[in-house]
């Protein structure tokens, strides 16, 4: 099976069909700025991602967005992902990495890319580094926006009251933060050893946080 220059292979497993990218044509990329942006819920990561991508003409890559787009457009990878989503299962990392690759290859006009909140796990981080090696991408900066849990909780509670979001209650927020730290801690340690992690204090206005990020890039 072929799709957009990507050769794909299916491998049967006991719980259905496991899909993964088998091999890819090699391309070399000359992006001038590549960022991976992390931040806990409520820290304003999404807002900063949009601002930075616009300011530097970066391709803004949100895995949730590209997954929804691929499913809506009925691409080969999107159709496979759809089968997992509809069955209530998690989309395998190989499919997500394949989608990221397709987006990076399709957007040569950008001066770089910004991965918004991805990778989320150590396995994804390693798979992403393998992808970068295949694409000839070596210069990737890791930026982590931080803020105290108490401030993050207060922000999301206020947002929940303003927007009528029942899921933004204290217990739910605490659980979301616990899940974030549990997932992100190994990823942070991995990047501290391999690329270095630049931390930015997120306790400031949107403009001030953007300025802080710009100063360390």
Describe this structure in words.
- The protein is α/β, with parallel strands linked by helices and 217 residues long.
- It has a single domain, classed as 3-Layer(aba) Sandwich (Rossmann fold), CATH 3.40.50.
- Helix content is 52%, strand content 20%.
- The protein is built from 8 helices and 8 strands.
- The strands form 2 sheets. Strands 5-6-4-7-8 form a 5-stranded parallel sheet, with helices on both faces.
- β1 and β2 form a beta hairpin.
- The longest helix is centred in the C-terminal third of the chain and has 25 residues.
- It is globular, with a radius of gyration of 18 Å.
- The N and C termini lie far apart (41 Å).
- The N terminus is likely disordered.
Indicate the overall shape. globular
The CATH class label is Alpha Beta
- Strand content of the residues, in percent? 15-25%
Low-confidence segments: 1-26
Q: Output the structural class.
A: alpha/beta
Query: What profile does the largest beta sheet have?
Result: 5 strands, parallel
